[in-house]
Amino acid sequence: MGAGHAHRLYRHGHSPVHALPPHTKLAAVFCFVVVVVSTPREAMWAFALYAVLLGVVAYVARVPAAFLLKRLLIEVPFVAFAVLMPFVAEGERVEVLGLSLSVNGLWGAWNVLAKGTLGVAASVLLASTTELRELLLGLQRLKLPPLLVQIASFMIRYGDVITDEMRRMRIARESRGFEARGVKHWGVLAKSAGALFIRSYERGERVHLAMVSRGYAGSMPVIDEVTASRAQWTYAFALPGAALLVCLLGWML
């Protein structure tokens, strides 16, 4: 975890949100999502206020709306599931534009869409303002089991290594005039997949031997000691704190 590692969701910047220690942002986003999930689905105004709060965070973090909306497309499968709920759910029915829809299904669809979208938006804002290396350090600082942190770290790095290896193999095939056009080319693709597996396995063994030769004994050394002041914790928890107030009002009103 000592080397920098950027990812596509990250947007470089120097905003107050970028400057916060990663573990404070992780804790704040987790608490915000818990509060959103705990909000009664009937309090529609509360979810609108949550969206406003996330909009304020995006503004402070200087994350453009287009950047955020584009990355929200990841939840499209959940949207498709939510759209089907009013048609397949049982219970009381209601006519909407000539369609017979389930009341429970409509509430369920709204619940999934509202809470899911807010959770994804909060996660995208976290990823947009925090590098992967910092996220791993934040998880380590929050006392997540070290083995899980190491697995996540290696998974991220090997994911990039395998992706790059796949790109080189594709370029090599195309440079020899190969182009997959049908079932008859599946054999070549299968052989490429097998070669990719063998190369990845061999590279993993070489990396492990190199780590052991340098003294690796099951735990990664802590290079950066990430700390946070009381003011930084207060600043980070402004979002979940405001959301908690909205949630309480949603249950009382």
TrEMBL record:
Subcellular location: Cell membrane
Chief localisation class: membrane
Transmembrane regions listed in the UniProt entry: 43-60, 72-89, 109-127, 233-252
Keyword flag Transmembrane helix: yes
Keywords, ordered alphabetically: Cell membrane, Membrane, Transmembrane, Transmembrane helix
A Pfam family assignment: CbiQ
Protein topology in the membrane: Multi-pass membrane protein
InterPro entries: ABC/ECF_trnsptr_transmembrane, ECF_CbiQ, ECF_transporter_component
Name of this chain's protein: Cobalt ECF transporter T component CbiQ
Organism of provenance: Streptomyces justiciae
